[in-house]
Amino acid sequence: MRIIRVNSYEELSERAAGFISAQITLKPDCVLGLATGTTPKGTYENLISLYKKGLVDFSQVRTANLDEYAGLSPKDPHSYRYFMNTELFDHVNIDKEHTFLPDGLAEDLLEECRQYEAKIKSLEGIDLQLLGLGHNGHIGFNEPAKEFIKDTHVVSLTESTIKANSRLFEKPEDVPRKAVTMGIGTIMGAARLLLIVSGADKREALNLVLNGPICPECPASVLKLHTDLVVIADKEAYPEE
Ligand code: F6R
User: Fold this and answer.
1) Ligand 1 binding residues, C-beta < 6 A
2) Is 126 buried (19+), middle (13-18) or exposed (0-12) by CB count in 10 A?
3) Beta bridge partners of 123
């Protein structure tokens, strides 16, 4: 594990985008595992500006997102498909046919999970997985639990995640109660992991990930077992070396 401590969210975003664009330069048809949420927004902004400067080419890149809410259409501004389109895909030369998220509207969500897992295998796995960290230690929508769930699966969101995500909805009741998420095994199967953590409100969660035991009650703790994990954290989230 390598931890890069930076001074600000801006620096974190620049470093993360640099990391991702280096991956694309090394392997132009790489598979990027992507995340939504507040933390990666700056990373995507920086990627767009690198693209506009001609410094990165998305034409052959494939992507697979970590998760999607159940019951939201891709056109719903709260859906993660909508987020990815508006925050990144609409602004770079990526072929949207090569961008994948679980289908939250699938009638049979269990079948959708199987198909999503198969899709990732058919892409021959993820080269670089970008991850944010939940306040309760979740990654993707892998919430604290009694055991790690390996493959893509349907989850019931915890009250703490519903509360955290309700800031993006009009009312907490509007937050979907279920989602489809890559499993811990799917995430750990990526060749390289990049965890980005920003802000004092994430300090406790990051401390538990880095210094606590590896256990499903803190899902992100498992990332320490990955042989190629880079954490970029700002000084608010990671005050000491
Ligand atoms: C979203 C995802 C989540 C977020 C996490 C942190 O695709 O995978 O695990 O990364 O909830 O979210 P923010 O960045 O909004 O604090």
Assistant:
1) 35-39, 66-67, 132-134, 138-140
2) buried
3) none
The answer to whether the beta carbons of residues 35 and 66 sit under 8 Å apart is: yes
- How far CA 107 is from CA of 64, 114, 156, 161, 239, in Å, comes to 20, 13, 17, 24, 46
Categorize the per-residue pLDDT at 167 as very low, low, confident or very high, splitting at 50, 70 and 90: confident
What DSSP character marks residue 215? B
148 neighbors 182 (Cβ within 8 angstroms): no
Q: What is the DSSP annotation of 172-197?
A: GGGS-SEEEE--HHHHHTSSEEEEEE
Is residue 127 annotated as a catalytic residue, yes or no?
no
Mean pLDDT of 160-186: 91
Supply the pTM of this predicted model: 0.97
Atom 12 of ligand 1: nearest residue by CA position = 37
- pLDDT at 241 exceeding the cut of 70: no
Give tens-digit pLDDT for 120-129: 999 999 999 9
CA 6 to chain centre: 20
Residue of 46, 65, 136, 165 marked catalytic? 136
